[in-house]
Each structure stands twice: as C-alpha cells, then as structure tokens.
Amino acid sequence: MLRDFSPEVLLKAQPTDIDRLITHYMGFTLEYQYLSHNQVYLGITVFDDTDHLPIYNPELNQAEFLSVKKNTIIIEGTLADNPNLLHRERFTEGHEASHGLIHPEYYQRKAQIASLHDYCGGIYSKPTFPDLSGVDTDGKRLKGEAWLEWQANYLASVLLMPRSSVRLLRNLIEPNGSPFWHLELIQTMVEVFNVSEEAARVRLISLNYLPI
Hints:
The protein is an alpha+beta fold. The protein contains ten helices and seven strands. Strands 1-5-2 form a three-stranded mixed beta sheet. Strands 3-4 form a two-stranded antiparallel ribbon.
C-alpha cells in the first residue's frame, strides 16, 4: 500500500503524510471534534451514516449528537489544540486509518446487526461473529476487538515507520561503536518519522532490532 501511495517513504526515511493518506488515498473525511470531557477517546472511525454520534461541547459542558457521513475519521480536538501532542495525534490518525483499511466489513456488519436488533425490540437473536483472535508479537493471545485494536496499532506503526526506512537509519547508526547507539537510533526516529519515543521503541522491538 505504501508503494502505491507514497513510494518515497520506503526509499528515504521521512514522515508519512498520514493526513493525505486518509483524505486522498483512502478517500475518507478527516475531522476534529471533542469526543469526550476527559479524552478517554482519541479517535473514532465512522463506517455508516449516523445522526447520533455523541460528542462533547466544552462551551456548554454537555454532550451533544453529531451527524456524520460514513467513511469519516474523527480525531479528538485536544490533540490538535496542543502542539506537544502532535506525535499522539499522528499515531491516532494512523490507528484509525488502519481500522478503515482492514476492518470496515467487521464494523459495518456490527452496526447493521445492532440496528436490526434495536428495530426488532431486542427479540432478534444476534448472530455470532467468526472467532476473532490472534497472537501479538509478545506471544500474547488476544481475543475479540482487543485483537482488532492490536492490529490497528501494529499497522499504524508500519505506516508511520516503514521497515525499509527503519533499516536505513539502523544501518547508519549502529556501526558507530557507541554503547548508546540504540538511544541515538530511537531519538533519530522521533525526529525523522515525527513519532513518540515509545512508538519508536516498540517498532524497533517488533523488528527485532532491540531486546524486549
């Protein structure tokens, strides 16, 4: 997908234009809203038209309902308000974009089933979904939507820090003989990919470039 969208990010270490990936490549709408009063939700992907998406109005200190068209990604407004949260904003965009890329069928079906269940007054017997489970890079088995969330996090890290570009940086830094080369590599990734130190460290571990 990155070869199709932005092949240059695979050839030279640089930030992925995640906004453009969402709006131009995926064709999604990108919006910013206050999703809660305490930032418990940093992003949401809307797969079906709705008139009842709950958001928070800070001026009135109350919840409201928002009309949203399908294929819309909404990012928590406080992330855009604070420049110090840019890394979290970018990763959240990558996470929600990942849901939009690999999970639309699941969430669309979930919404349709919920709507039918409500329409039938709760007497409709909801069908079960296929088993959702898998093993993460730490060997931990995840089930249900926890597995989907892990997938979205993993794909976000891939979009923001492609393997080939990480390898380029590692090859430049590791041979310098410094015992702190890994710290230098993490800091370089922060600056080059515009990600957090934690995101950079986790990505390096997933590529077996750092011990857990």
